[in-house]
Amino acid sequence: MTQWKKDWTPNPETFRRFLSWLDEGVDTGGEEYLEMRRRLARYFERRNCLSPDDLADETLNRVARKLEEKGEIVGASPAHYCYIVAKFVLLEFVRRADGNLTSLDENPVASRVVAGLAIPPQPEQDTVARERLFACLEQCLGKLPPDDREMILEYYRGEQRAKIKRRSELAARLGLTPNALSIRACRIRGKLEICVSACAVQT
Amino acid sequence: MTSADKQEFNDQLLIRYLLGSLPEQEAERLDELSISDDAFAWRLSAVENDLVDSYARGELSGDDLAQFKKSYLSSPKRWQKVQFAEALRSFEAKAATQATQESTARSSGPKEGTSKDSSPGRWFAVPRLALQWGFAASALGMLLAAGYLLIENTRLRKQTLEAQGRHAAFDQPEQELQRQLNDQRAANAEMGKELDRLRESQPSLDQVKALSALLLPPTRGAGRLPTLSVPQGTNLVVLLLMLEADDFPEYRVSLKDPAANQIVWHSASLKADSNGAEKTVSVSFPAYMLRQQNYVLELSGVPASGRAEFISGYPVRVVIR
Question: Which of B51, B102, B260, B287 has a 20 to 30 A CA-CA distance from B43?
Fold first, then answer.
């Protein structure tokens, strides 16, 4: 897999300073870091990178290192600076994707060729996997606070056209703006997805 | 970027961005916002969740559906989101079925002590506040001396609602079955077209012109120009992917177009071959699928039980001669 600048890792003090810089004066207890990592990973994923999580970590590592070396980063907000560094990481990734092809003549293994059968793409889920995922979802929903559970089930329920009206009513009932409700639903769903994913791997 | 600028990003534009259909310059603009702008990032997440839910519910169609299958589903993490959405939809369907069954059961005889119910239906309760207001309104009505008429009216309304509930209990499974049947028909039709296309394009064995090459693991041979020269008239391309370790009983390989973020071909399950210490996975696919551009062959390991795990990507540049 891609070789990155693994020779540097932040020490606890550097990492604490990095978290504080990302927080921009508001202590989020690491939430901002996790959110930035999620956004970066999604960015690399949309850009068709093979290991989006690794690239997100590499980006944050580089930013932390720069902060350590310079003492401060000026001229850009933390989020915008992370994006600038992420663009460079992406460019490097694309360049490093070169290579790795040799001719058949160069390797004796290539004298034996067993061709695989081409088929169109198909869903990989089988019934067992679906049932396991369903059980995990039930389990993870059960771990949510009741208010969050009822909210998220109500928010994502039904067909797209019917959702708009229901969400508007739900926001009014909860005393939230539609935008605040949307963000809250996204946060809860994100946690739920992580919980279900972890549960599915374990079982 | 001001908030006024952000207004131009309607949901349809964000969907095109998520599906990889936007021009590069515009996509870059949204890339930046997706990281640096909190409001935009959350909105993008919300639109993505709804997009995935729409796919899971069979609500996507036309270009959106085609692009979703080609582009969005090319990433293992996105697959996970789709699987989650499908589980959520199943949960909702099961809850709705149970709710209507319980409603039917209650109408034939009320039961006490259901607090330990663990079915999904219990999480879709009618808001308690609404019921309280309903009772209060009834009481006020009685105090205004129209008690008898109101009680009679309430009784009739309740009967109507119960009848509607029983009707819904019969309707819901039928609708669900109909939906599943339609989904299955659509999938069959799509599969049939693909098979026809493959049959038409299949050359006879004595006419096959095959090209083969070996791809090393991505950590080796860095810096070397990855070129696969495909002569005109080649029918079949056979590629050997060398493994760093043979850790899985089976493997799968996807041929991905990184520029379009699309998987253009997907192998069946494959077993690794060994020649001494060398382990390889061999795949073959029709040459007509290749264009003069870069591709990535994504190798996934399939464990004895559980989901396939992404192992590595083997980039290759194709030159048509």
Answer: B260
* pLDDT one-digit tens code per residue, A95-143: 876 544 333 334 333 333 322 222 333 444 467 888 889 999 999 999 9
Q: Which of A179, A181, A194 is nearest to A148 (CA)?
A: A181
- pLDDT per position as a tens digit, B173-191: 445 555 555 555 555 555 5
H or E element at residue A150: helix A146-155
Q: What gap in Å lies between CA A143 and CA A159, rounded to an integer?
A: 26
In 3D space, the residue among B272, B305, B242, B214 whose CA is nearest the CA of residue A116 turns out to be: B272
Average pLDDT, chain A: 81
Q: Model-level pTM?
A: 0.56
Q: Which of B84, B6, B94 is nearest to B43 (CA)?
A: B6
- For residues B249 and B271, what is the distance between their CA atoms, to the nearest angstrom? 7
What integer is the mean pLDDT of B4-31? 84
Is residue A129 helix, strand or coil?
helix
Residues of A in contact with B316 (CB under 8 A): 100-101
The vertex-B100 CA angle with B99 and B101, nearest 5°, equals: 90
Q: Are strands B278-286 and B236-242 parallel, antiparallel or unpaired?
A: antiparallel
pLDDT at residue number A173:
93
The shortest C-alpha distance from B75 to chain A (Å) reads 7
Count of A–B CB contacts within 8 Å?
244
Q: CB burial class (10 A; 0-12, 13-18, 19+) of residue B155?
A: exposed
In degrees and rounded to multiples of 5, residue A36 shows phi and psi of: -65, -40
Mode of pairing for the β-strands spanning B236-242 and B210-215: parallel
**DSSP classification of residue A102:** E
Contact (Cβ atoms closer than 8 angstroms) between residue A123 and residue B73 = no
Contact at CB, A48 and B34, closer than 8 angstroms = no
Q: Which of B36, B220, B312 sits opposite A77 (nearest CB)?
A: B36
CA separation for the pair A41, B227 (Å, rounded): 29
Sheet holding B262-267, edge to edge: A118-119, B262-267, B250-257, B294-302, B309-320, B227-230
Residue B212: what are its φ and ψ, rounded to 5°?
A: -130, 155
Q: Which of A200, A144, A54 is nearest to B79 (CA)?
A: A200
Q: Residue A127 carries which side chain, given as an amino acid letter?
A: T
Average pLDDT, chain B: 72
Q: How confident is the model at residue B216 (pLDDT cuts 50, 70, 90)?
A: confident
Inter-chain touch B42–A186, beta carbons under 8 Å:
yes
**What pLDDT shows up at residue B224?**
61
